[in-house]
Hints:
Among the domains are: 16-90 and 122-196 and 293-365, FAD/NAD(P)-binding domain; 439-552, Glutaredoxin, CATH 3.40.30. The strands form five sheets. Strands 1, 2, 8, 9, 10, 11, 17 and 18 form an eight-stranded mixed β-sheet that branches. The longest helix has 25 residues, at 349-373. It is globular. By secondary structure, it is an alpha/beta fold.
Amino acid sequence: MLQTHQNPVYEYARSPDQDAATPVHHPLIVVGAGPVGMAAGLDAATQGIPAVILDDNNTVSVGSRAVCYAKRALEILDRLGCGQRMVDKGITWNLGKVFFRDDQVYSFNLLPESDHHRPAFINLQQYYLEEYMVNQIERSPQLDLRWKSRVIAVQDEDDRVRIRVETPEGEYSLTCDYLVVADGANSGIRKMMGLESSGQVFQDRFLIADVVMESDFPPERWFWFDPPFHKGGSTLLHRQADNVWRIDFQLGWDADPEEEKKPENVIPRLKAMLGEDTRFDLEWTSVYTFQCRRMDRFRHGRLFFVGDAAHQVSPFGARGANSGFQDTDNLLWKIKLVLEEQAPDSLLDSYDTERVPAADENILNSTRSTDFITPKSKVSHIFRDATLLLAEEYPFARSLVNSGRLSVPSVYRNSPLNTPDTEIFDSPMQPGTPSTDAPVNDDAWFLQQIANNRFNGLYFSQSAGSLNSDEQAILSNLASDSPVPLNLLVVDLDPAASCPAGVAPIRDSKGLLKQRFDGRPGTFYLFRPDQHVSARWRQLEPKKVAQALARATGRS
């Protein structure tokens, strides 16, 4: 029992589907009500897709587990209706510090640029996030979250997926168009389907100790290599909500996990670090090993694997839940277009094309972090310590220090859905990149304007305040003739000026849209429903936009 949190218990409820003579069909079923599974369900609801979420448990996670949520994850959670509660409850931080033995080596700011709606990171216990997501699901008439419902059989057929569900009141069957598998690293469905997840298990163990204490430590990420209170190992300190502090200790491969979790062994480590006189209460402990693994493919017919069911990385770097949210953000808008016959089934293949390289990038960074934190040879150890010594004085060495490269948004550089640049831009917002943010209008943000689950166009008009007749005609035709819903925004268009149907003005409050997108007059950006840039041009040409839309929806 945690001191700062009491897990809710969600009651099992019998579904009318259990009494049907034949299996009831649903457009989408999600297996697993962890953060990534619930994100898939919430995303489905925002897309207008009715969905069933099945989970074999009846509560949220026990212990803090995933605690670190990156800016991009918060932006996705904003679209799903949970972002503000996360930020309100969580601990906001942008600054990290690295220590070697007794000395601070250097510090880093993960959000050096001002005027963004969301911070670089927040820290919040996973159980709070899950509770907020359950609350949001309960408010959605399109979602049905069924607790104590274990999937015990899966059959992928030509035109549907058939599953068998075990409940406290017996078994029943369901069918669906698509099955999203979010049942975790030890995915039961992956095993049922005879699929494998392969990779590397690193020979080291780490202890997580969550402690409750009043402290003057600032809300920053502190990482120690070979500190005096834990000689030969590494230690990580994070603050969470409710005065709960996450502390990780490197234990070594020979450590006995069950022994190390016992309070009589944990408390002396904490006192050595925090001081004998520091008052704290032990909240939760766990021991974990580093693993970097993934499936060969994430799409298997009508089944889509997301989050830890598809790929797994070590906790350092906060790449687990953050990458899982990017999985669902990538997938659900594509399922919507296919279900509504606005895109071919082949569009769904791009989930693999885009998310498998993203997983490989996470695994690469996580592996490098692990190799730096836990050197495997004497030479590697010497190199690491020399790098840390140099980093205090020489900037070049700081880029080599790796205490867990932190989660960054995936960029789909080589996606077949992109329309490559043919012109020069002084902006990193190239096709495949998730959009940056900026303040707009009186008290709003740009990402809020393109969080409508549609394709969006951003046009920088040729003259401030109004559109000429050619611009009006082009934008009007784009809005009315698009093969998929297309929302159009015009920068710094006078609200009193004539505006075609389907076109909205947007005021660049601080001039940062122009700066961050290199928005010279006539520039046009096309964004996908997941807010990634699809294409950009220096001149708005309807034919090119139509071709880019066809490409981005798999019709090219």
